[in-house]
Amino acid sequence: MQRWRGLEDIPQDWGRSVVTIGSYDGVHRGHQLIIGRAVERARELGVPSVVVTFDPHPSEVVRPGSHPPLLAPHHRRAELMAELGVDAVLILPFTTEFSKLAPADFIVKVLVDKLHAKLVIEGPNFRFGHKAAGNVQLLTELGDTYDYRVEVIDLRVRGEAGGGEPFSSTLTRRLVAEGDVAGAAEILGRPHRVEGIVVRGAQRGRELGFPTANVETLPHTAIPADGVYAGWLHVDGEAMPAAISVGTNPQFDGTERTVEAYAIDRVGLDLYGLHVAVDFLAYVRGMLKFDSIDDLLVAMAADVKRCSELISAYDRG
């Protein structure tokens, strides 16, 4: 899969293509419907498929300080898109100048002059151009002028997690923030993941017999609510069952919120300085302060046992 950063990276001899545009944070099941349809139609038409997305998130430029928590960094989104069969991903630097493009100018600059769109696939709520003035209706009307067609994909949720709401990154972020990682996974189509570098912490876990990887998460990461979770710690392509703690470590009067993962039944791991990923499978309990260290140790042992059970049940199908 080709990856382009900015319009200037697009090959000059690029021909017609099937295009879909959006932030696509999380590449959730709604996004997968749109992107999958773009890939399908591109193959039918004998042209490549292109996903256009933005960095930073448009809201940060339009309303500074409003950057939403991110469900997936751009490299992870690209990996997920590649798995769906996408031929190219274009990341457009979203600047103040770019945000001021009128809808028609946006279409000409991106879809017509550079990507030579033959077909555009979007969800019903797609907006584009200055002040998000462009919508699917305008996109379709401009297609008559610039020789491309538009298909709109319905994104309604029919599972329990959405309660009838459309698939959306906003809904997924809310579930993650509430600690409902199972509900988020139902929308994402996989467990929610956070990534970062393993850094040195207070090393209390090691002293207590449960050494954890203290993950310095990427900026703007959507981090689940404080608590204990079952999941996996991914290191160099290996997925290790893990008990995960999110919070300020109230037992020791901590103030900084951290994500720490204990690789169950693994000893001698040296992960400092490595980039790792943590997948959240299930919520186990809230973050508590115990009466004594002994009570904490009993709870931690029970947490690890429960996490192992949940992970084993998931692995069995």
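^ that was protein a. below is b, sequence first then the tokens
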Amino acid sequence: MNDTGRKILVVDDEELVLDSVVMAMERLGHQVSGAADMTAALEHLQDDRFDLVITDIRMPESKTAGMEVLKAVKARCSDTEVIMMTGYGSIENAVEAIRLGAFDYVEKGSGLLVPTLELRVKKALEQQSRRQRLSVLEEQNRELKSALNTKYGFENIIGRSGKMRELFDQMRLAANSKATVFISGPSGTGKELVAKALHYNSPRRDKPFIKINCAAVPEGLIESELFGHEKGAFTGAIRTTKGKFELANGGTLLLDEISEMNPLLQAKLLRVLQEREFEKIGDSRTIHIDVRIVATTNRDIKKAIDEGRFREDLFYRLNVVPIKLPSLSERREDIPLLAEYFILKYSKEHGREITGITEEAMEFLQNQEWHGNVRELENSIERAIVMCVDNQLIKKHFPQGTQDSSNGVKKMFNFDGQDIPTIAEMEREVILRALEANSNNRTRAAEALGISIRTLRNKLNEYRAMGIDIP
């Protein structure tokens, strides 16, 4: 809020003082009203609201009339600032006024009343502005937290099947604990959504929720991303930076796709989980943390352990509370409910008046394999809504060959005669189609393909080197 153009009430029974203070406040650009006694001041306060009141303590009604004005101001609006003017003999009353909520007091007999008042008024209005901005931020913060709690409530994870009811029971028990949670499940099943629901329904809900995708961060930077670094710790470290662990202190840290983390960093992570402390890169000082860990993977973690790609001791440290998300094919009875939700969501988002879906189209959706699970179903419905010119989705709005597991490859490629593609060509086509289906979002495309983002990035670099245009 601007600290000029504010509404100020000046109260003093000495006409010379009243006029000089009113004129001084008007020179500062404020809207000023004057009152010659307590009664007039109280009438002004009843009729209007002021940002600041400047009042003498002693007035004709009583030696402490200004104190009554102060009490009336604070009773009507505690945010209004009050500055008291006092004679030499009223310092004791002025101190009492500060105790009752006045911002400050100014001695009238000093000969510097107006310049001193101007400084006090400026400070009072600056403090008021800071307090009001903070109040707005606090309210916005409360609204944001309320929205997050609503968005990530258990009831917003859609499903009524037996598998999902079992999942909800596990989540409710896990949310109220401090235990580390290990979420596994195929790509597109909603692992991150579950992680957020665990946080926003836990005692840590008012603390940070920090996420790092272990597959998306280049290998040379992930240690710095996790633990932070000191300025000059390595080439390019131009400033001291906090890592994800430090940023998440008191809250929850989501280690997404943790199975893609390199073994050396796995050993460092194990020590952090055991000791709850770490050091930044380039700093010997130990930082102690209180962070709840939630880790996710779409890999066969047992296979990764057997192949030596993931530490068994780290897995046991992470797998305190295991939560396994079912694939969409394991809960087909939830498909109509999910479809209804996505139709409402994307009809609104794209400005379409889609009222529903035909039985034939719904039966088609329920019979697909949905290797990309809920995310693939969501993308398919969004695409159908964009392409639909009627008010109801029908079977033709859904591609008839991208979800059929038995005929998908045959329909994607031409296997007639001599037009048999090479494995490399098939791989390239699948990758490019996955990117297109996921609006060129590399992380989502990698998840749909069942590969790491690092592998996807390397493949795309290969295609660019071949002269293929990559979005």
